[in-house]
Design brief:
mainly alpha
Length: 204
């Protein structure tokens, strides 16, 4: 049975993970090194290895936390709620995640671009099961005539693509908008309007 970590050990572990998030989100898993992570964390490499035995262990720890962050907004979509309210709530939470967790978004994007070597089981397991569950909810709302009929899984893909763009392409977004703009406030207004119109029922 392992001993609980002291406050200093917990702090150092969090410092390492935060530094690793910077390094991995900037360089990807392949481009990142333990030396880079140790330097950003302000710790020696032997000290870092006391907490995590390898680069892979640090990466997996970050990805496991990330998956919960990613899944929670979709889990919160309530089948008993008003469809537009629930979908717009999901869109809003995804924009907030892009705003509040841009490094995590880029870490996830890098992992997927590399073929998801460390997350394939989670993607094909927990994420797939949750998407299946929520697309069934979306389909039921569509079948009941509550929102416009669309391919539900592609609706989710579209929400992911648009909302995560603001984190993954932050530099480009800010360059295109110019100074004096709040990308995430503007994104929230636009994306909610876009999906509200897309999902609205049009009667002849």
């Amino acid at each position: 049975m392992s001993r609980p970590r002291t406050r200093i050990q917990q702090k150092n572990s969090e410092t390492i993970l935060d530094a690793a998030l910077d390094v991995f989100s900037a360089h990807g898993f392949r481009g990142a090194t333990l030396d880079q992570i140790a330097e950003v964390a302000g710790l020696s490499k032997p000290n870092l290895l006391y907490y995590f035995p390898s680069k892979e262990a640090i990466h997996l720890s970050l990805l496991s936390k990330l998956l919960d962050t990613w899944l929670d907004p979709l889990r919160a979509m309530d089948p008993q709620g008003d469809p537009l309210t629930e979908i717009m709530g999901y869109v809003r939470r995804k924009i907030e995640i892009s705003r509040d967790f841009p490094r995590e978004s880029r870490l996830f994007a890098n992992e997927i671009l590399q073929g998801a070597p460390h997350m394939r089981a989670a993607i094909e397991g927990d994420l797939k099961a949750l998407v299946d569950e929520k697309t069934s909810v979306l389909q039921a709302w569509m079948d009941a005539g509550k929102i416009a009929p669309l391919p539900p899984v592609h609706l989710l893909f579209s929400i992911w693509a648009i909302t995560q763009h603001y984190a993954d392409f932050d530099v480009q977004v800010r360059a295109m908008l110019g100074p004096g703009h709040d990308p995430y406030a503007e994104a929230q207004d636009f994306v909610e309007l876009l999906f509200t119109r897309l999902l609205a029922l049009h009667h002849a």
